Amino acid sequence: MFYYDKQLRSNQGKEFVEIASCANISKVKLSHFERVLRLIRKSLSFSKKQKIVLALFIPDYNAQGAGVLATITTGKYSIIKSLVMIALYQVDAFTDKIFGGNPAAVCPLKEWLPSQTMQAIARENNLSETAFFVINDREIELRWFTPTTEVNLCGHATLAVAHVVYNHLNYQGTNLRFLTKSGILSVSKTVDLLTLDFPALPPRQCDCPPLITEALGRNPLEVWQSEDYLVLFEDEKTIGEIKPNMELLKELDRRGVIVTAKADRDDFVSRFFAPKFGIPEDPVTGSAHCTLIPYWSQKLGKTKFVARQISSRGGTILGELKDDRVLLSGRAVTYLQGLIEI
To answer: Is 86-192+331-341 a CATH 3.10.310.10 domain?
Structure first.
């Protein structure tokens, strides 16, 4: 639908009025807006000094929409600039209640924006991850951005994208294929769970860097490394009490630091810190469990786990080690739906 926001100098206020419709957003051109502007100018009466400022747009929550900013006076209309409207969803992942789990922003696109534009959007969203995707014939191209950089893998934002595709874009299948910088990733859907199929990232044991002890304020039992450092402590209470020095953690040579211990209930708990990438503490981290699941599988002699990430928001991941893959299952809920104007 076309809409306009009418602001009169006579302070009559704002009206939000449907004035025309267009069946296929992909065929919308500037001429469509010009035709609507002419209709508006003919349908309204003006005083000599009156000017109407309009934001005229076609929302499309499946991908980019289109719009113009324009003015109309007694004798003419003038288009100030063209607008691109991008759908935005904010989804809480690895939870079944809003305000829990890990929030991610999701933006469906018809075609890729410049990387610097996507990075600017992620910085403006200021969430741990913003995911952008383009649907092709055989798969979905997917990229993830923190507020400061693009990353190669993100679990909770992938879960959020799958939630949007299934629940807002009305995809009817049971499996999704994502083409990413980490290769092909898949997500399957059961009645109430989404399951991510990710590569396992098993860690190897290493000496404890002095910075870890200094940054975490205590001596760990073990230190392992993969894409992140995995640091083992005595119990769940210790994990919850850690107050890391984020500036020191930025100096480490890995993406981030996972702290973990055997859980009081369930199988294990963890927290994840990645200040180097603009994420002081991530609420629930799917990609960290690509390392945690192989580690705890070796330690506990099992392949299926109930894992809790005990950040302030908290979340639960059902994990399984299957050969060289990690299956991560969870739920997600939509917090908001809107449009970005660029």
So the answer is: yes
